Protein backbone atom coordinates (compact mmCIF):
# COMPACT_ATOMS: atom_id res chain seq x y z
CA UNK A 1 0.00 0.00 0.00
CA UNK A 2 1.36 3.42 -0.88
CA UNK A 3 1.89 6.00 1.83
CA UNK A 4 -0.43 8.80 2.79
CA UNK A 5 -0.10 12.10 4.54
CA UNK A 6 -2.23 12.15 7.67
CA UNK A 7 -3.68 14.61 10.13
CA UNK A 8 -5.63 13.58 13.20
CA UNK A 9 -8.75 15.33 14.42
CA UNK A 10 -11.16 15.05 17.34
CA UNK A 11 -14.67 16.05 16.30
CA UNK A 12 -16.16 18.89 18.36
CA UNK A 13 -19.79 19.79 19.10
CA UNK A 14 -19.49 22.82 16.82
CA UNK A 15 -18.92 20.45 13.88
CA UNK A 16 -22.19 18.60 14.36
CA UNK A 17 -25.74 19.41 13.28
CA UNK A 18 -29.00 19.30 15.25
CA UNK A 19 -29.22 15.54 14.82
CA UNK A 20 -25.76 15.13 16.38
CA UNK A 21 -23.75 13.87 13.41
CA UNK A 22 -20.99 15.77 11.61
CA UNK A 23 -22.29 18.47 9.30
CA UNK A 24 -21.16 17.70 5.73
CA UNK A 25 -19.32 20.99 5.12
CA UNK A 26 -16.74 20.03 7.76
CA UNK A 27 -15.42 17.22 5.58
CA UNK A 28 -14.47 19.80 2.95
CA UNK A 29 -12.94 22.02 5.61
CA UNK A 30 -10.82 19.08 6.79
CA UNK A 31 -9.62 18.49 3.21
CA UNK A 32 -8.36 22.05 3.10
CA UNK A 33 -6.72 21.76 6.50
CA UNK A 34 -4.97 18.54 5.50
CA UNK A 35 -3.67 20.15 2.31
CA UNK A 36 -2.45 23.21 4.25
CA UNK A 37 -0.64 21.13 6.89
CA UNK A 38 0.95 19.06 4.14
CA UNK A 39 2.36 22.23 2.56
CA UNK A 40 3.57 23.52 5.92
CA UNK A 41 5.26 20.26 6.94
CA UNK A 42 6.37 18.71 3.65
CA UNK A 43 6.63 21.55 1.11
CA UNK A 44 7.51 24.83 2.86
CA UNK A 45 9.24 26.05 -0.31
CA UNK A 46 5.84 26.01 -2.01
CA UNK A 47 4.45 28.26 0.71
CA UNK A 48 7.21 30.73 -0.10
CA UNK A 49 6.06 30.65 -3.73
CA UNK A 50 2.47 31.25 -2.59
CA UNK A 51 3.68 34.29 -0.67
CA UNK A 52 5.24 35.49 -3.93
CA UNK A 53 2.87 34.91 -6.85
CA UNK A 54 1.85 31.23 -6.97
CA UNK A 55 -1.87 30.65 -6.58
CA UNK A 56 -3.43 27.27 -5.85
CA UNK A 57 -6.97 27.47 -7.25
CA UNK A 58 -9.38 24.81 -6.07
CA UNK A 59 -11.27 23.66 -9.16
CA UNK A 60 -13.36 20.85 -7.73
CA UNK A 61 -14.10 19.10 -4.44
CA UNK A 62 -16.32 16.16 -3.62
CA UNK A 63 -17.03 13.82 -0.78
CA UNK A 64 -18.91 10.54 -0.56
CA UNK A 65 -20.24 9.49 2.86
CA UNK A 66 -20.38 5.90 4.09
CA UNK A 67 -21.09 6.19 7.84
CA UNK A 68 -21.90 8.82 10.43
CA UNK A 69 -19.50 10.21 13.00
CA UNK A 70 -20.34 12.33 16.03
CA UNK A 71 -18.77 14.62 18.61
CA UNK A 72 -15.55 13.33 20.20
CA UNK A 73 -14.97 10.69 17.57
CA UNK A 74 -11.29 10.44 16.65
CA UNK A 75 -10.67 10.86 12.95
CA UNK A 76 -7.72 10.39 10.63
CA UNK A 77 -7.80 12.39 7.41
CA UNK A 78 -5.44 10.69 4.95
CA UNK A 79 -4.36 12.40 1.76
CA UNK A 80 -2.78 10.83 -1.32
CA UNK A 81 -1.85 12.14 -4.73
CA UNK A 82 -4.35 10.70 -7.20
CA UNK A 83 -3.39 12.47 -10.41
CA UNK A 84 -0.91 15.08 -11.59
CA UNK A 85 -0.67 16.96 -14.86
CA UNK A 86 1.74 19.72 -15.80
CA UNK A 87 -0.45 22.40 -14.15
CA UNK A 88 -2.94 20.51 -11.94
CA UNK A 89 -2.97 18.14 -8.99
CA UNK A 90 -5.78 15.91 -7.75
CA UNK A 91 -5.81 14.61 -4.19
CA UNK A 92 -7.78 11.70 -2.73
CA UNK A 93 -8.85 11.83 0.92
CA UNK A 94 -9.89 8.97 3.17
CA UNK A 95 -11.72 9.84 6.37
CA UNK A 96 -11.08 7.05 8.85
CA UNK A 97 -12.82 6.74 12.22
CA UNK A 98 -10.22 5.60 14.74
CA UNK A 99 -12.18 3.42 17.14
CA UNK A 100 -10.88 1.05 19.84
CA UNK A 101 -12.49 -1.80 17.87
CA UNK A 102 -10.55 -0.84 14.74
CA UNK A 103 -10.49 1.62 11.87
CA UNK A 104 -13.57 2.31 9.76
CA UNK A 105 -13.70 4.27 6.51
CA UNK A 106 -16.51 6.80 6.95
CA UNK A 107 -16.03 8.98 3.87
CA UNK A 108 -13.89 9.45 0.79
CA UNK A 109 -13.24 12.71 -1.03
CA UNK A 110 -11.29 14.35 -3.83
CA UNK A 111 -9.92 17.77 -4.53
CA UNK A 112 -8.46 19.16 -7.75
CA UNK A 113 -6.27 22.24 -7.78
CA UNK A 114 -4.68 24.28 -10.55
CA UNK A 115 -1.41 26.13 -10.23
CA UNK A 116 -1.65 29.70 -11.48
CA UNK A 117 0.62 32.74 -11.49
CA UNK A 118 0.25 36.42 -12.18
CA UNK A 119 -1.79 39.30 -10.83
CA UNK A 120 -5.36 38.60 -9.72
CA UNK A 121 -6.81 40.16 -12.85
CA UNK A 122 -4.54 38.24 -15.22
CA UNK A 123 -3.65 34.85 -13.76
CA UNK A 124 -2.41 32.17 -16.13
CA UNK A 125 -1.79 28.43 -15.67
CA UNK A 126 1.63 27.56 -14.30
CA UNK A 127 3.57 24.32 -13.98
CA UNK A 128 3.24 22.44 -10.71
CA UNK A 129 6.31 23.56 -8.74
CA UNK A 130 9.10 21.01 -8.59
CA UNK A 131 9.15 21.26 -4.79
CA UNK A 132 5.49 20.20 -4.71
CA UNK A 133 6.08 17.34 -7.15
CA UNK A 134 8.93 16.06 -4.99
CA UNK A 135 6.95 16.41 -1.75
CA UNK A 136 3.98 14.51 -3.21
CA UNK A 137 6.00 11.64 -4.71
CA UNK A 138 5.87 9.39 -1.60
CA UNK A 139 2.10 9.81 -1.40
CA UNK A 140 1.11 8.67 -4.89
CA UNK A 141 -2.06 6.58 -5.06
CA UNK A 142 -1.21 3.45 -7.01
CA UNK A 143 -3.62 1.35 -9.04
CA UNK A 144 -5.49 -1.21 -6.98
CA UNK A 145 -5.27 0.72 -3.70
Structure description:
The chain is an alpha+beta fold. It has helices at residues 25-42, 44-52, 130-136; strands spanning 5-10, 54-65, 74-84, 88-99, 102-117, 124-125. Strands 1, 2, 3, 4, 5 and 6 form a 6-stranded antiparallel beta sheet that branches. The longest helix is centred in the first third of the chain and has 18 residues, at 25-42.
Q: What is the makeup of the main sheet?
A: 6 strands, antiparallel
Radius of gyration: 16 Å
User: What is the overall silhouette?
Assistant: elongated
Spatial gap, N to C terminus: 6 Å
Say how many strands there are. 6
Poorly predicted runs are: none
Strand content: 35-45%
Overall pLDDT, averaged?
94
- Which structural category do the helix and sheet elements fall into? alpha+beta
How many helices does DSSP assign?
A: 3
In N-to-C order, the SSE pattern is EHHEEEEEH
Relative helix content:
10-25%
